[in-house]
Specification:
Blueprint (H helix, E strand, L loop, with lengths): L20 H6 L12 H13 L16 H5 L40 H15 L1 H6 L7 H20 L5 H16 L4 H8 L9 H8 L1 H9 L3 H22 L10 H26 L1 H4 L2 H22 L1 H6 L7 H5 L15 H28 L5 H23 L13 H13 L4 H13 L6
Length: 450
């Protein structure tokens, strides 16, 4: 039996309350400060502590002799057992726990569906900040399907952009990738062969995606037939189209607008058609509007792609590529192959760029019409579309304001602008009239440079 104040054992025959009446009136009769336990309680606590085995058998209970096994698995950057660093110095005599690194190879054991989805989310955040922001807005399970489709497109894009691959190998790998996605070739063998061919110029996240494409492709093969057919059609058009235009890649640019339209369709317009098929498969309400959506879908993708081509114009030229039509620049007396940043006639260059900006703005107008055809109740799909569209319109405005830019960073929108787009479109996501006013205002700001 203990005192009411949990302080000392109450001696036999002692009064029940020894706390002063004033303290009892203020509280419950407990002491204001916790006192040390009595001798019997202290002995009992110490005996329990001596008898209790250590929680982690890999860590020695002795503070001076850490377990040899634990020391043998010390991880760089993590203190070994028995060491103390930082704020822990002098505070504890107990050795620090050791984190034993696990085998990072994803092929060590079969990946579950949850493992594949976790890897897709991780890979997505590494290869694209924009789509890592927009794809999670989609409803489940559409989010996982479109995320998977995007990663496959990214693998094709990685092959196209790899400077270390000669033209013949690029074409061969792109055509083989179609067979991989269709299930006619091994994803594991393809990834193991392609990965060593990638140079340091390819970002680490893309190289990791190529090395681990087997579970990503396996997820595609496990989709329902309509979903898988849409993705296979997408890669079947995109990869050969990339191979076709790799032979035309020079700093002289493409021949004309017809070639530009064809290229944009192969690398982006077909993606718009693919997500339309996936949207229709997801929602009967969207499927009822399939014909109108499909007519606008390629323009959505082309508008986004044209913005990227214009923004990355100078960086692409540095690596020997140009996707702009040379006949447009010839109309202004400019030769794409001899352009020098900041040294050519700024007025002529602005005129040529603005002609292309107007074409891109027209495609983004189609993209807005497409978005408004999505039922308002599908708020997640609308956010996915509106955020991408809003960032493209804002970037296009930057290009119109600064036609004399010399690198993409000068016209790249800031994180503050991205947050503003996200907040504004999310607030108006179900209000068509408000979204229309905001889009018209944004496009109206793309004025012809003086």
């Amino acid at each position: 039996m203990y005192w009411r104040g949990w302080c000392y054992p109450r001696p036999s025959g002692s009064p029940r309350h020894t706390t002063p009446p004033r303290q009892r009136r203020q509280g419950t009769g407990r002491c204001r400060r916790p006192l040390a336990p009595g001798p019997r309680q202290a002995r009992r606590t110490m005996s329990r502590a001596r008898a209790k085995p250590p929680k982690n058998p890999g860590i020695s209970p002795c503070p001076t002799t850490p377990c040899p096994t634990a020391l043998s698995h010390s991880t760089p950057g993590i203190p070994a057992a028995g060491t103390r660093t930082g704020l822990l110095t002098g505070l504890s005599r107990k050795p620090l726990p050791v984190i034993v690194p696990h085998d990072s190879s994803r092929s060590a054991k079969p990946m579950t569906n949850a493992d594949v989805l976790a890897y897709q989310a991780e890979a997505l955040s590494g290869v694209s900040r924009t789509f890592a922001l927009t794809i999670p807005q989609l409803p489940m399970p559409l989010r996982d399907v479109i995320g998977n489709a995007y990663l496959l497109c990214r693998i094709a894009d990685t092959i196209e952009d790899e400077a270390n691959l000669p033209l013949e190998k690029k074409e061969a790998y792109l055509h083989r990738f179609v067979h991989v996605v269709e299930g006619r070739a091994s994803a594991r063998d393809f990834g193991r062969e392609l990965h060593p061919m990638l140079s340091e110029a390819t970002i680490e996240a893309e190289r990791d995606l190529v090395a681990n494409m087997e579970p990503v492709v396996g997820f595609t093969h496990g989709l329902r037939r309509p979903q898988r057919a849409a993705i296979e059609r997408c890669i079947g058009i995109m990869a050969p189209g990339m191979a076709e235009f790799q032979a035309k890649t020079t700093v002289q640019g493409l021949k004309d607008m017809r070639d530009l339209d064809r290229y944009c369709y192969c690398v982006a317009g077909v993606v718009g058609e693919t997500i339309t098929e996936l949207f229709c498969d997801h929602s009967p309400a969207i499927h009822r509007r399939r014909d109108r959506l499909f007519a606008l879908s390629a323009g959505f993708g082309q508008g986004l792609q044209m913005v990227n081509i214009l923004k990355d114009f100078w960086e692409d030229r540095e690596r020997g590529a140009c996707w702009l039509p040379r006949n447009v620049f010839a109309d202004f007396g400019l030769d794409l192959s001899t352009l020098v940043p900041g040294k050519d006639d700024a007025r002529k260059l602005a005129g040529a760029l603005y002609r292309l900006i107007r074409v891109a703005a027209g495609h983004l107008g189609s993209a807005f019409q497409y978005t408004m055809l999505i039922p308002a109740k599908e708020a997640g799909i609308r956010r996915f579309l509106l955020w991408s569209l809003g960032m493209a319109v804002q970037t296009l405005g930057r290009l119109a304001e600064s036609p004399a830019f010399v690198n993409g960073e000068q016209v790249k929108i800031s994180r503050k602008e991205v947050r503003a787009i996200v907040l504004a479109t999310s607030a108006l996501v179900r209000w068509d009239r408000g979204l229309g006013w905001m889009f018209d205002r944004a496009v109206g700001r793309i004025a012809r440079p003086s």
